[in-house]
Amino acid sequence: MKTTLPHFSHARYGSKAARGREGFSLVEVIMALAVMSFSMMGMLGLLSVGLTNFQKSMDLTVRSQITQELTFMLQRTPFKDLSSGTATSHYYDSEGLLLPNARKDDSVYTAELQIESLTETATRVSPTITYSTTPSQLKAITITISRTSASSVRPYEFTTYVSNTGL
């Protein structure tokens, strides 16, 4: 039995001369590169916006962590040690870790605590609020956190009220 191979015509698959011309023309390659470069330019514009938003969110996260740490510290402080009219400063690095006062030049964030008696801060409190304790047993503590290097960034301010629980 003799096996014969099918006959393929050059018209269907192209001749040897036609096969050398297959591929993309120079104009098609240039157009494809132009479309890709145009889309990449848009993505580069989004990159700067994304990095700016990332930096702002990291800044807000660190400030929130500092506020939580200071609020927790104030909750553990005896009420008699919270004297009105005092302001203290704490210094933090870029990760929100407390630095000793000797290294305040290396700080990225500065947190200032301002302690006031409630009678001194009556304008901040709504007159419709009723308290279960007398105003002399309440302190208003304002925590202001600012970046030491960036003067254009607004300071973050948080006010909390601490009552005398007798501890």
SSE topology sketch:
Blueprint: H1 10-13, H2 16-19, H3 26-76, E1 87-92, E2 98-99, E3 109-117, E4 138-147, E5 156-163
Antiparallel strand pairs: 1-2, 1-3, 3-4, 4-5
Describe the structure.
The chain has 167 residues and is of the alpha+beta class. 35% of the residues lie in helices and 21% in strands. It has three helices and five strands; from the N terminus they run H-H-H-E-E-E-E-E. The protein has a five-stranded antiparallel β-sheet with strand order 2-1-3-4-5, with helices on one face. Strand 4 (138-147) and strand 5 (156-163) form a beta hairpin. The radius of gyration is 34 Å and the shape is elongated. The termini are far apart. 10% of the residues are buried.
Key words describing this protein structure:
167 residues, 21% strand, elongated
Brief overview:
This protein is α+β, with helices and mostly antiparallel strands and 167 residues long. The protein has helices spanning 10-13, 16-19, 26-76, and strands at residues 87-92, 98-99, 109-117, 138-147, 156-163. 35% of the residues lie in helices and 21% in strands.
- pLDDT average, as an integer? 80
Rg (CA only): 34 Å
- Spatial strand sequence of the major β-sheet: 2-1-3-4-5
Q: Can you write the helix and strand succession as a string?
A: HHHEEEEE
Tell me how many strands there are.
5
This entry's quaternary arrangement is single chain
Helix content: 25-40%
Percent strand equals: 15-25%
In whole angstroms, how far apart are the ends? 108 Å
Low-pLDDT stretches: 120-124
What's the helix count?
3
Largest sheet: 5 strands, antiparallel
Structural class: alpha+beta
The shape is elongated
